[in-house]
Write a sequence for this structure.
């Protein structure tokens, strides 16, 4: 997990809210927010809370054999947008197979998001909420996450990473989500390596088919708009020389698209 389970439990007790190294003077009261966002909630001693999904939600989530969904508060990000203090709560809801969390290389839990805006009187008001904004992770567990500022005014994206090794492939993917609308605006495969572990070992017979594609994303800031992106791709292979390419992306108001430059 991104946040230690003990820290999560302290959050649910209302002691503090994790802010990725920040220390806001008036943190969002996590326990109160959870009770409002998830009806029929029961907070357990390990920091996990359970709730009963509505009938329509059962087509999205996979509750346990007793009909309960299991969720944790993963973290709370604090940031400033257009001069207003904001908070983004990140929830992880696990998919169950009877009494156990589903676990396979493609089994990803649900990531829920709740955005709060701080009012002039110091209180927090909910701006948006989605119990499942996306699925990300592997082997039943979530990957790392972070937020990234993309404009001088304070437009941010939530980035969820996932990485796994299966059938000889090593895969790493990032998905970028708009913190206002929760729409996917960019998705990129940062690493695709097969067979895994063959980098620099082309002298081994079993590495003859080795091929690795690595991508790096850099920001190209703009003074009054969302940053452009530069994606640099490097392909390594035991059969061919190293290949390098690059591509520029711009934000069209809904998502990042290839600029064709």
């Amino acid at each position: 997990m991104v946040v230690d389970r003990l820290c999560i439990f302290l959050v649910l007790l209302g002691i503090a809210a994790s802010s990725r190294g920040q220390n806001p003077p008036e943190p969002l009261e996590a326990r109160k927010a959870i009770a409002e966002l998830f009806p029929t909630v029961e907070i357990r001693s390990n920091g996990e809370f359970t709730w009963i999904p509505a009938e329509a939600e059962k087509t999205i989530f996979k509750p346990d054999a007793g009909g309960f969904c299991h969720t944790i508060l993963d973290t709370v990000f604090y940031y400033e947008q257009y001069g207003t203090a904001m908070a983004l709560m990140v929830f992880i809801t696990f998919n169950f197979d009877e009494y156990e969390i589903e676990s396979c290389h493609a089994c990803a839990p649900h990531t829920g998001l709740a955005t709060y805006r701080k009012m002039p009187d110091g209180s927090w008001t909910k701006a948006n909420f989605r119990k499942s904004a996306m699925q990300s992770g592997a082997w039943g567990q979530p990957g790392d996450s972070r937020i990234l500022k993309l404009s001088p005014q304070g437009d941010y994206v939530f980035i969820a990473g996932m990485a796994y090794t299966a059938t000889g492939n090593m895969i790493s993917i990032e998905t970028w989500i708009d913190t206002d609308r929760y729409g996917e605006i960019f998705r990129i495969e940062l690493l695709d390596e097969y067979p895994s572990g063959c980098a620099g070992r082309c002298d081994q017979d079993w590495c003859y088919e080795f091929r690795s594609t690595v991508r790096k994303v850099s920001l190209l800031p703009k003074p009054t708009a969302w940053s452009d992106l530069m994606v640099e791709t490097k392909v390594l292979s035991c059969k061919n020389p190293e290949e390098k390419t690059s591509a520029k992306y711009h934000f069209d108001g809904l998502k990042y698209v290839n600029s064709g430059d």
Summary: The chain has two domains: 1-138, 144-261.
